[in-house]
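#data-curation
PF: Archiving a pair of folding outputs for the training set. Convention for this channel: one message per protein, sequence first, structure tokens after, nothing in between. First:
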Amino acid sequence: MDRGDFVCVTGRSGSGKSTFLNILSTLLSPDEGYITFDGVNITCFSEKKRNRLRQNDFAMIFQFHHLMPYLTAAENVLLPYLNSWKPVTKSTLNRAHACLDRVGLKDKYDRLPGQLSGGEQQRVAIARALVKSPQVLFADEPTGNLDKKTGDAIVQLLSKMNGEGLSILMVTHETAYASASNRLVTMEDGVAKEQSQAL
């Protein structure tokens, strides 16, 4: 995966798509081989260094948004700062609002997750992933819990962000979404096979 790529990983259920993503994002360690990021072998990083990498350079979104139901949209977006014990300042709050604006949730900063639609909740999760300006976004079935229209809108949003320079690796069982990517990888029995460039 090169900078600026949008890689789509498809395959049957149980083929190893999510495991592949979790290894690349350092949530899991590979049994063999190694992973490089910016020319550095990160496979042998300590857990502390991996955590720092995930806090500063990598971000993840999932099929289920994992929002805190008692926090507002803006507060959910700010969670990465709270998890890294960094104080929330006016600047970081403005950053959270800007990220919510970017995903189309302007004027919904103070809404609780239960007051948002499923698509809006997923947009909050995307804003949370973007708040610390990651270099790579890992998305594991981000449309799997959404209807087709809402899922299409989420993929269009990711494609727009990719066009602005964000590198994305997205796992999906929806092969139609491969058209949003510039590289297509198919998983078969735990083996990644890169296909021709997605159209």
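PF: Second:
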Amino acid sequence: MRISDILARKNPIFSFEFFPPKTDEAAAQLERTIGDLGPLEPDYVSVTYGAGGSTREKTLDVVTRIKRGSGIEAMAHLTCAGSSREELRSVLDRIIESDVENVLALRGDPPKGQTEFVPAPDGFRYANELIDFIRAHYHDKLCIGVAGYPEKHIECGNPFVDLTNLKRKVDAGASFIVTQLFFDNRKYFEFVDFARANGIAVPIIPGIMPITNAAQIERFTRMCGASLPFRLAAELDRRRDNPEAVMQLGTAHATAQCLELLQCGAPGIHFYTLNRSTATMQVLTALRTVGYGNAQTAGSV
């Protein structure tokens, strides 16, 4: 089923993001995580691409296995990085042949060791070009999602320019937006307000990553340009040598974030799981306990 159709008939929706494993041990961990989270009946799951398209085959394998093996709706990430138009068309053909109906169209990150994005020969520089390509060759066979950045993309110096770039992606044919992680809900609400004021009308799904490790989340925020609110950062620093206390703080903060987001009309929550299940299970179970998760009439920010 297309994610746009799910969004049209249900509110809120919940989804999980995984990344392709690189080792046998990591593969086993992912299988355990899928097994743990499956009973929570996510509306869809997504599977990322590595930098420079480095995990393309594994991404397709994981997406296909989830879709066919578990019956859970799946979305494949697809990036411009490292791929020509012919290679992208081959990937898209395989996605459709696997009965996957959803893609998240991204520019992608440069390969490891490179700081500047360089398009592949006969490739694309921007995600809106990729979306144009998909629509031109596949028409409505695929539902397309895109990424949005409440604190702007780290490579963009001007938040209005970043929002203009997002509108290009939506105008090219994107049906929904999934945001980068954030820890201050005001960032999301302001982002939605500015998006709506600038003609972006599609659903904007907030992306939430429960904190489970202090050093790890600090590294992630540096990489993606997200910020930690001062009080959260101070409490995290106070607990950094106590993993259990960090986990408790992270799940409590994420649960509070999600409750406020949903109460204020967010169309759902997209959980960045890091291929682990405990924190996401705790947060989503808490949301289900207070009544979120059953089919409701659509209508969201």
